[in-house]
Design brief:
The protein has an eight-stranded parallel beta barrel, surrounded by eight helices. The protein has a two-stranded antiparallel ribbon with strand order 5-6. The protein has helices at about 25-35, 70-80, 110-120, 150-170, 180-190, 215-220, 240-250, 265-275, 285-295, 300-315, 325-330, and strands spanning about 45-50, 65, 85-90, 125-130, 145, 150, 170-175, 200-205, 255-260, 280-285, 320-325. By secondary structure, it is α/β, with parallel strands linked by helices. Helix 3 (about 110-120) links the parallel strand 3 and strand 4. The protein has a domain at about 40-255: Aldolase class I (TIM Barrel), CATH 3.20.20. Helix 2 (about 70-80) packs across helix 3 and helix 8 packs parallel to helix 10. About 35% of the residues lie in helices and about 15% in strands. It binds ligand PBG. Ligand PBG binds near residues 215 and 216.
């Protein structure tokens, strides 16, 4: 919700009283009056696990690189040392089919990575993305009936996938397929298999965005025909996004996510106002790539720009932020002015 009329209209007191710059004169003083700060421990690093990380299409942006299970465990350990204590896993399977059946294969890249991560570091929060687009040969997030995505035949497959990840030891599962009732289906599947303690991070308001490009290259998940506008949200619709958030909350989501982040700060702020659940935001691959590309040309200071965007996302109301900058920023000194 956009802020209503200002609560307090400043009364001009004159030149000596109205000096907001007084509190900006020293770095240490600015720290004293800072209203917010992004903590490393609220960042989540996405990681791409592949059966065969050398397959063509592997992205060149470093945090989007495909890794083997072992390399994923090494990267997670590195992240942990720099203060990032949560990862979000995506899988790139060897085999794709019409159903996306590798998604729930217990020997697939994601379950194997979950087990490896939990074995080496039980204190790491492991979140597994639940979607079919990386696993289907047509690249859509659900199964097809003709050229349409069949919502209700997709649901049990998402339930099965979430269960496979919970069986492997995931702390949270994160459904991102934007099928109606996916959260309720996954909650039932988890509860029915003894995973009452596994939480759901719902990609509740996920927009049909043009900022997913680098991800689709990394994950090899671009749709082979059409686009995702029949299931992801129309970027023009804030009220519809709030309805999606409310539905996922009612279906049992533990955390509500808005995605992408920076172009949808109004939605993050509205979600924060309206719901008492933790709000997450996903600073997606295109948001990361824009800053990287501009910095590579010398047009932006990369670290400063990255920090500013994460700060904005947090200020809007996100408690946890998924970001490809997580590793790079955490490795930096935190007390940099
Ligand atoms: C899968 C999924 C996508 C992203 C996260 N999960 C891609 C898509 O919807 O096409 C995008 C993340 C990013 O761009 O960083 N459904």
């Amino acid at each position: 919700m956009l802020p209503a009329a200002p609560r307090e209209v400043p009364r001009v007191l004159g030149r000596s009283a109205d000096r907001p710059r007084r509190l900006r004169s020293l770095a240490s003083l600015r720290e004293l009056v800072a209203e917010s700060a992004v903590r490393r421990s609220q960042l989540v690093a996405p990681l791409f696990v592949a059966d065969d990380p050398d397959r063509p299409g592997a992205a060149t942006l470093r945090p989007l690189r495909r890794r083997t299970v072992d390399a994923t465990a090494r990267e997670a350990a590195r992240l942990r040392r720099s203060g990032v204590r949560a990862v979000l896993l995506f899988g790139i399977p060897e085999r794709k089919d019409a159903q996306g059946s590798s998604a729930w294969d217990p020997h697939g890249p994601v379950p194997r990575a979950i087990r490896a991560l939990k074995e080496t570091d039980p204190a790491l929060t492991v979140i597994a993305d639940v979607c079919l687009c990386e696993y289907t040969d047509h690249g859509h997030c659900g199964v097809l009936r003709g050229a349409r995505i069949d919502n209700d035949r997709t649901l049990p497959l998402l339930g099965r996938t979430a269960r496979a990840y919970a069986d492997a030891g995931a702390d949270l599962v994160a459904p991102s397929a934007m099928m109606d009732h996916q959260v309720a289906t996954i909650r039932e599947s988890l509860d029915g298999s003894g995973h009452e303690d596994v939480a759901i991070l719902a990609y509740a308001a996920k927009f049909a965005s043009s900022f997913y490009g680098p991800f689709r290259d990394a994950a090899g998940s671009a749709p082979s025909f059409g686009d995702r506008r029949s299931y992801q949200l129309d970027p023009r619709n804030r009220r519809e996004a709030l309805r999606e958030l409310a539905l996922d909350a009612a279906e049992g989501a533990d955390i509500l996510m808005v995605k992408p982040a920076l172009p949808y700060l109004d939605v993050i702020a509205a979600a924060r106002e309206r719901f008492d659940l933790p709000i997450a935001a996903y600073q997606v691959s295109g948001e990361y790539a824009m800053i990287k590309a501009a910095a590579a040309r010398g047009w932006l200071d990369e670290t400063a720009a990255a920090r500013e965007t994460l700060g904005a996302i947090q200020r809007a109301g996100a408690s946890l932020i998924v970001s490809y900058f997580a590793g790079e920023l955490a490795a930096e000194r935190q007390d940099r002015p």
